[in-house]
């Protein structure tokens, strides 16, 4: 099965957010073909959530998993460490007061 390029996935995701009037932007541009993508959801109350796609062996499918939830600065600290270790990393940040992220559609 062919894998969708990271750049194309990010563009499609940002377009989906735009349709729902949710602000989204790329804060770290990784490898266009196969960079890992992290999604940071900023909830406008000083908190944030960080999601990463993983493969669930029990269900035999990819799914988005929340890897951190806490203060915005805590999430940023983890992201900075991740960027140092993975120069191909994509980080997409969205601003959603309710936390709605539409990752279940992707």
Q: Could you walk me through the main structural features you see in this protein, from its secondary elements to its overall organization?
A:
With 106 residues, the chain is of the alpha+beta class. It has a single domain, classed as Protein of unknown function (DUF1491) (hypothetical protein tt1805). 26% of the residues lie in helices and 37% in strands. It contains two helices and five strands; from the N terminus they run H-E-E-E-E-H-E. It has helices spanning 6-19, 72-85, and strands spanning 23-28, 37-42, 47-56, 61-71, 90-95. A five-stranded mixed β-sheet has the order 1-5-2-3-4. The longest helix has 14 residues, at 6-19. It is globular and about 35 Å long. It starts with 5 loop residues before the first helix and ends in an 11-residue tail after the last strand.
Distance between the termini: 16 Å
What's the CATH C level?
A: Alpha Beta
Number of discrete domains: 1
Number of DSSP helices?
Answer: 2
Annotated CATH architecture: 3-Layer(aba) Sandwich
Largest sheet: 5 strands, mixed
Bulk shape: globular
- Reported by name, the CATH topology is hypothetical protein tt1805
Uncertain stretches: none
Overall mean confidence score, pLDDT: 92
Instruction: List how many beta strands DSSP finds.
Output: 5
Superfamily (CATH H level) name: Protein of unknown function (DUF1491)
Strand order of the largest sheet: 1-5-2-3-4
Percent of sequence in beta strands: 35-45%
N-to-C order of helices and strands: HEEEEHE
Give the helix level as a range of percent: 25-40%
Q: Structural class of the secondary structure composition?
A: alpha+beta
User: What does the radius of gyration come to?
Assistant: 13 Å
